[in-house]
Amino acid sequence: MILKPRFSSYALTRAPSRRETCSGFTRTSMVAAAATAAMGKSRRSSKKSDRLEQEIAENPAANGDVEEASGRDEESQPSDAASLSEDESSQGSPVDSEEENGGVNGDEDHRSGEESDSSEEEVPSRNTIGDVPLEWYKDEEHIGYDVAGKKIKKQARKDRIESFLAGVDDAKNWRKIYDEYNDEEVELTKEEVKIISRMLKGKTPHAGVDPYAPYVDWFVWDDKGHPLSNAPEPKRRFVPSKWEQKKVVQYVRAIRKGLIKFDKPKEEPRVYLLWGDDSSAAENKRHGLSYIPAPKPKLAGHEESYNPSVEYIPTQEEINSYQLMYEEDRPKFIPRRFESLRSVPAYEKALKENFDRCLDLYLCPRTRKKRINIDPESLKPKLPSRKDLRPYPRTCYLEYRGHTGPVKTISIDISGQWMASGSSDGTVRVWEIETSRCLRVWNVGEAIKHISWNPLPELPVLAISAGHDVLILDTGLGNAEEQARIKELLHVEESKPEEDGGSTPVVSWVQDDKYDCIRLKHLKAVTTVEWHRKGDYFTTVVPSGDSRAILIHQLSKKHTQNPFKKLHGLPVSAVFHPTRSIFFISTKKNIRVYDLLKQKLVKKLETGVREISSIAIHPGGDNVIVGSKDGKMCWFDMDLSSKSYKTLKAHPKDITNVAFHRSYPLFASCSDDCTAYVFHGMVYSDLNQNPLIVPLEILRGHTSSDGRGVLDCKFHPRQPWLFTAGADSIIKLYCH
Amino acid sequence: MDFGVAGGAGGSEEAARRVRVRFTTKLGPPLRVPSAPLAVPSNLTRMGLSEIVNLLLENASAEHETQPFDFLIDGELVRLPLEEFLLAKGITAEKVLEIEYIKAVAPRKQQDPCLHDDWVSSVDGSNPSYILTGCYDGIARLWKGGAACTHVLVGHSGAITSAHIINGKDESENRFHIATGSKDRTLRLWKFDDAEHLEHPVNIREYKILQGHTSSVQSISSDPSGDMICSGSWDGSIKLWDVKNSEVQGDTVSIKKRKLVSDTANHVESQLEGVAASTLVGHLQSVSSVVWPERETIYSASWDHSVRQWDVQTGQETWNMACGKVLNCLDIGGESSALIAAGGSDPVLRIWDPRKPGTLAPVFQFSSHSSWISACKWHCKSWFHLLSASYDGKVMLWDLRTAWPLAITDSHKEKVLCADWWKNDSVISGGADSKLLICSGVSIQ
Questions:
Q1: Last residue of a domain, one of A170, A200, A230
Q2: Which domain holds residue A111?
Q3: Total number of domains in chain A
C-alpha cells in the first residue's frame, strides 16, 4: 500500500517526540489529557490520539473512509492485538469490556473513567527503558525491560491481511493506535476522542474548564504592619540636602534679580456671561468709575411683532384715549400690523432717540447721588385713626346771622344755652344756641374787641370791651332772684370815682344808665377782658398802657388793682389759671406765668414765634397753647420745659385765636385763611406720658372779607361743638 | 293684556323686556282690579304702575277718578324702576310678581298758612278741631279748624317751647286743659271751653303756674289719662306735675309768696301755683324731649346723647341708651308702639327697637335731611308712617318700608321747629318763618 512507508516513516520520526511529550508533559494537550485519563493509559492513548489527530487532519470524514483507515491501521493491527492481549492478561478485562459498553451507556462510561483512573494508578509502565531512541531496540528481540528487569519480548507481528481483516471486523478499529514504546495497541476511549477533537478545534480540552472565570484576588494587599525592611531611618533623611540648598540659593538669586515673577498676568476670560446681571457686576466697580447700570429693557413680546395677533392691536377709541393721558403714562409703543416685514417702515423716532441718547450721555451727572431708600410712610408718627377720636366737630349745621360787621369775638355761656357775640358794627348779640335765634341786641356804639361770659351759671353777666371802656352787662337771662342780685351787684355809687380822683385813677367805675350796667373807663383802648374762674375778678389788657397795661378788677368791691407794674414787652392778652391762683401774661414774644398769691414770676415760656396773637389754657392747667401771627401754634407742657413741646405749623395765615375744650380732649385754632383746625389734644394724668396731639379736621365755610377770615373760635362747654366767628359777619356752629 | 304703551316706554328694544305682574290690594271693592296676571314693561316706574292700575279701574267703572297709588313688593315700597328694584332686591322676574297697591301717602293740598307774630316753636294737633301753637312771643294760640285763631293764651314772660293739649277722658270733646312750658322756667295750665266762642280771639288766662324748674322748660308730655303731665327742662331734670287734683287744692299761700317775690304780679285773680309731684333726676344735660306713651313709662331724650326710660311709680330709670348725638326730639310709636324715633344734631332720623336684644344699633336710619332734626312724630294709626321736621326747612313724610321720603314739604322759608299730625290726615308744622303750615289730604289707612 502506498500509505505504509509513509506511515512507518512518520511513526518513526515522531516516536521520540511522542515519548518525550509523554514523559515530560510539555505539551498542554497531553497535560489536559492526563488530567482525566490515567497516567499509564494516557501514555498509550496519547500516541493513539496523536495518530488520530493526524488521521483526522488528513481526512476529516474519518468514519466514512473506513477502508483507508483500516488500510492504514493494518500495520498496527498486530501490535494492537498483542497489546490487547497483554492488557487483557495483565490488567484484566474490565477496561475493555467497559470501553465496549462505553458507546452504549454514558453512565457506565463515566464509571469506567473512574475505574480506569484507579487502575492506572496501580499499573506502571510496562517498559522501563526510559527516553531512549527506540531504534536501539529495533533489531532486538525485546522492546525493553519491565520493572522486574525482565526482557519484554516483542510481540509477533500480525500479518497485514490478518490485521486488515481484524480491522474490518472491528468497528472500533479506527480508534486503535499502536504504541511502539510499549509494543502494544491502544484503543482510545470516547472521552479521549472528544478531547482530541476539541484540541484540534483550538478549544480547551475539557468542556468544563472556563477560561474566563472571574478573577479571584487571593492576595491580601493590606499592610500587615510590618515593613519590608526593619532598618532604622538613615541619617541622610535628616540632613538637609546640599544640592537642594544650592538650588534654593539659585532661586533666591533669580528672584532678587527679578528673573522669576510670581504674579502671573491673569488670563482674561475669553467668554463672558451674555445673560448675566449687569447691576451686580462686581468687576464693574474696580474700574474706578461709579457704574450705573442701564435699566433693563423689557423683553420684546408678541405685541412688538410686525404682525401681532388682533387682540394686541388697540382700537381707535383706545388710541384716542391715549391722547387724554399724561405724557408719562402713555404707552411707549402702539402695536401695528403689517402684511409683511417688507412693509414695516423705518423707525420714525430713530433720529430723535439718538439725539436724546447723546444728550443723556452728555448731560449725565457723573457723581452718584446718595439716596436713602426709606419709605416715607414709615417716618410718619403713628397716630390713632380719626375715627377712634370721635366725637369732634365736623360739619356746620347752624349759622347765626344778624351782625352787619365782622364778628370779632364770641363767648359761650357756661350752661351751653346761650352765646354772646361782639362785632365791629358795635353791637353785642345774645343767641340761643339751639335754634340760632338772636335773643337780644345791645348797641354799644363802638367796635367790640372782646366779650366774655361770667363763668358762674347763676350770674349771667357779660364783660364787654369796646374802645376804651369795659362794660359789665346784665343779660337778663337769670330768674327773678338772680336778676335782683345782679342788679344789686351792678350798682355803683357815684361817689366812688370822686374819692379816687385825687390819685389819678387807673380806671373809673361808672354806672351806665342806658343798659343798666357798669362801665369801666380806661385810659387807652382795651383789647381783652377775661374772668377769673370764681366770677368775681376779671382782668383787662390795655396794650398801650405801659405800666398800667394789665389790670385786675374785682366786681363785688368795684375795685381795680395794678399788680404788674413792669412788663417786658407789649402785652397781648392775660388769662387766669383755670384752677389755681396763677396768672398768664402773654407779650408779643413770650409768656410769663405769675403766682398771684406769692406775687412773683413762676415761669417764662419762650415761644420762638414772631408775634403771639392768642393763648389758651388747658382745663387741667398744665398745658398752654399759643397761636402766633405767623400761623404757628405752640403747645407748652409746663411740667416739661419752658420750650414748646410741639409746634404745629398749620395755617398759612395769622392765627387769630386758639381754644381748648372744657371736657373733651379737643383744641382748635382759627385763622385768617378762613379755616379752623380741630386737633385732638389728650393730656394724660401720668406724668411720664407726653400729650398726644392728632390733627383731626379742617373746618371750612367762612368767606374772606377784607383780608380777614375767621376771627374767633370757641368750643361749646358741654358738647364737642365748635363756634367760629367770621369776618363775613356770620357765626357758624360745627357739630360732631 | 299688554301695556307696552301705558308705561310710556316706546322703545322697541325695551318693549321686549316684560315682567308678569298681578295686582292685589287690601283696598275696598271700587278700587279693586281683576287679579289676572299682566305683562308690563320692566322699566316701569311707580308712576307707570299707577297709570296701569288707574286704567284698569277706569275700564271697570267709568266714574273712577284717577289717583296716585303706591306699590309694595315683598313689603317694600317701589321707588326705583321695576327692573332695578327687582335686581336690587334679588327677586326673580320669572314668576308672576305680586304687587300690592295702596293709596299714595302724600299731602294733596296745602291750606293758607296761619301767621304768627314770632317763631312758632310748638304745635299740637291732638285735638281734631283745634290746633294749639306755642310761639316765641310767649303766647299760645288755638286755631279752630286750622283756619282762624280763636283763643289766645297770654301769660308767659318767655318764649313758649312746648304746648300740649291734655285730653282728659271724662271731659267732653271741646273742654280740655292745655299745658304750656316756656323759657321763663314755668309751666302754665289753661282751661279751655268751646262754649264761650266769640268773633274776636278770646284771651284766656292760666289757672295755674307750675314752678320748680331752674332753667327753661323744653318739653311737655301728658299721661294718657290726662291726670299728670311731665316736663323736661334745660336743667336736666324731668318733673311730674299733678293736673287732675290741682283744681281742687286752691293754694292761696303760694299767691302770697308770689306777691313777695315779684312785685309785678298784679294779676293774681285766678292764679294758683303748683309744685312738682316728683322729679326724675338722671340726665346730665338739657332734657329736650319727653314722651309719656303709657301710664307707667316715660321716655326722655337729652342733650347728653341718651334716651332714657323711666318708671313713673318708682321714679327710677329703667333703660338707658346712648346714641352719640345730641337729641332734640323723640317719639314712641310704630309697631305695637314700641319703636323709638329720635333726631338731633345731625341730619339723620334714627329709629331704634328697644325690644331687640343685644344691640343698640338703630333699626332704621333716614338721612335725607340736610340739617338738625327738630321734630319727629309717628302717625298714631299706622305702624309705618312718621314725619320729621328739620332746620333745613323741610318736613318729610317717611314710610318704614322705603328709605326715601314719601313726601317733602318745603314751603317753610326758614327752620322748621315743630311738626305734628292733625286729624290723622294732615301735617301741621311751624317754623322760624312765623307760619303754621297745614298740609292736608294725607290718606293713611
A1: A200
A2: 3-200
A3: 2
Query: What φ, ψ does residue A387 adopt, rounded to 5°?
Result: -65, -35
Of A159, A185, A200, which closes a domain?
Answer: A200
Q: What is the crossing angle of helices A3-24 and A66-73, to 10°?
A: 70
Query: Which residues on chain A are in Cβ contact (under 8 Å) with B371?
Result: 397-398
In tens, the pLDDT along A469-526 reads 888 888 888 788 888 888 888 877 765 444 444 455 678 888 877 777 888 888 888 8
pLDDT over threshold 60, residue A318: yes
R_g over Cα of chain B: 25
The pLDDT confidence band at residue B230, using thresholds 50, 70 and 90, is: very high
Q: In order of start, what are the domains of chain B with their CATH numbers?
A: 12-103 (3.10.20.90), 109-440 (2.130.10.10)
Instruction: Give domain status of residue A129, yes or no.
Output: yes
Q: Across the A/B interface, how many CB contacts are shorter than 8 Å? A: 49
Confidence of residue B247 (pLDDT cuts 50, 70, 90): low
pLDDT band at A282 (very low <50, low <70, confident <90, very high): low
CB neighbour burial string for A203-226, b if at least 16 within 10 angstroms, e if fewer? ebbeeeeeeeeeeeeeeeeeeeee
- pLDDT(B94) > 50: yes
Q: Which CA distances in Å does A211 have to A33, A193, A208, A215, B167?
A: 17, 21, 9, 11, 137
* B344-348 average pLDDT score: 89
Q: pLDDT-derived band of residue A711, with 50, 70 and 90 as boundaries?
A: very high
B215 close contact with A: CB closer than 8 A: yes
Q: With contacts defined as CB-CB under 8 Å, which chain B residues touch A736?
A: 325, 345-346
Is A456 touching B (CB cutoff 8 A)?
A: no
Q: Is residue A35 part of a domain?
A: yes
Q: Flag whether pLDDT at A86 surpasses 70.
A: no
Rounded-to-integer distance, Cα A563 and Cα A566, Å: 9
Contact (CB, 8 A) for A333 and A319? no
Number of other CB atoms surrounding residue A383 within 10 Å: 12
Phi-psi label, residue A130: left if phi above 0, alpha if psi -120 to 50, beta otherwise: left
Could A435 and B432 be called an inter-chain contact, meaning their C-beta atoms sit closer than 8 Å?
A: yes
The arithmetic mean of pLDDT across residues A68-90, rounded, is 41
**Cα–Cα distance between B409 and B394 in angstroms, integer?**
6
Predicted confidence band of residue A380 (pLDDT cuts 50, 70, 90)? confident
Q: Can you give the pLDDT at residue A145?
A: 87
pLDDT at B388 over 90: yes
- Tens of pLDDT, residue by residue over A354-379, are 999 999 888 877 676 777 888 888 88
Residue B126: Cβ within 10 Å count: 18
Q: Quick one: angle between helices A39-58 and A3-24, nearest 10?
A: 140
Residues 278-337 of B with CB under 8 A from A: 285-286, 303, 324-326, 328
Which 8-state DSSP code applies to residue A154? P
Is B346 in contact with A719 (Cβ distance < 8 A)?
A: no
Tell me the chain A residues in contact with residue B216 when contact means C-beta distances shorter than 8 Å.
Answer: 417
For residue A552, being part of any structural domain is answered with yes
Least CA distance to B302: which residue of chain A? A719
Residue A25 within any structural domain of the chain: yes
* Closest residue to B185, CB basis, from A398, A479, A736: A479
Q: State the nearest Cα–Cα gap between B309 and chain A, in angstroms.
A: 22
Contact B432 A437 (CB under 8 A): yes
Q: What is the pLDDT of residue B287?
A: 93
Q: What is the CATH number of the domain that holds A537?
A: 2.130.10.10
Complex prediction ipTM: 0.86
- Taking an 8 Å cut-off on Cβ atoms, the answer to whether A735 and B326 are in contact is yes
**Distance in angstroms (rounded) separating the CA atoms of residues B328 and A456:** 26
Q: Compare all CA atoms of chain B with the CA of A390 and give the residue at the minimum distance.
A: B324
CA distance A442 to chain B (A): 19
